[in-house]
Amino acid sequence: MTLWIVSALISGYVIGCLHGSLVAQILSGTNIKATGVKNSGASNAAIVLGWKYGALVAFLDIFKGFAAVMAMRLLLGSSSLPSETVWAILFFIAAGVVLGHNFPFYMKFNGGKGTAAVIGVMIALDWQLGLLGLALLIVIALATDYLVIGVLALYAVFLLIAFWPADGLWPYVIALSLMAMAFLKHLENIRRVKDGTENKVSAVLRKKSASAR
């Protein structure tokens, strides 16, 4: 099992390092890490370049998380490993993807905040709960006008996947650890929400309308 776990973490990390923001930079000529809130995630791409680029970055980062976990799921499908071990390996590769997204080596370990990557791995782990988490993220973000509040709801569903349908202790430990990391990554956003200085979802959507004129 140790070899499986190490392989899952390493392969997940490498895949996680493939940032959608790099595609946005090639297409737009703008390095989003140098402006806005200065991270390489989809939300900053939307703030800096508009909602279309934000959607592109989100799609690519969601897809890499989905593809990594789904590929591992297919690989493990032909194994005789017990269910608890399979779930542990799936969550380890999921953790690798998120770590690669958040701490890519070529960005001096300063990447995104992992939200899109988590959506992808959630859909691959359980598509119904994954889509539920995505729907809650969107609805709550629109209702509150703050993306970070929707992100916290997303991670609550991720914890639910770790309890069920996942099997064993490792999924719970990994999901809880990733949620704690997400909270720390979004701590500044939470402070800005309290101060009233956080970028609002409606402002990003208005930017889209203005750029379309």
Structure, explained:
One of its GO terms (cellular component) is plasma membrane. Its main location: membrane. The chain is mainly α and 213 residues long. It has one domain. The protein is 76% helix and 0% strand. It has eleven helices and no strands. The C terminus is likely disordered.
Summarize the structure.
The chain has 213 residues and is an all-alpha fold.
Could you name the key traits of this structure?
213 residues; globular; disordered C terminus; acyltransferase; acyl-phosphate glycerol-3-phosphate acyltransferase activity; Glycerol-3-phosphate acyltransferase
Report, as a whole number of angstroms, the end-to-end distance. 56 Å
Q: Which oligomeric form is depicted?
A: single chain
- Gyration radius from CA atoms, angstroms: 17 Å
Q: How many strands, which pairing sense, and closed or not: the largest β-sheet?
A: none
Strand % is under 5%
* Helical content class: over 70%
Structural class, by secondary structure, is: mainly alpha
How many beta-strand elements?
Answer: 0
Report the mean per-residue pLDDT as an integer: 93
Question: How would you sum up the global shape?
Answer: globular
Spans of at least 5 consecutive residues whose pLDDT stays below 50 are 209-213
By DSSP (H or I, 4+ residues per run), the number of helices equals 11
Order of helices and strands: HHHHHHHHHHH
The total domain count is 1
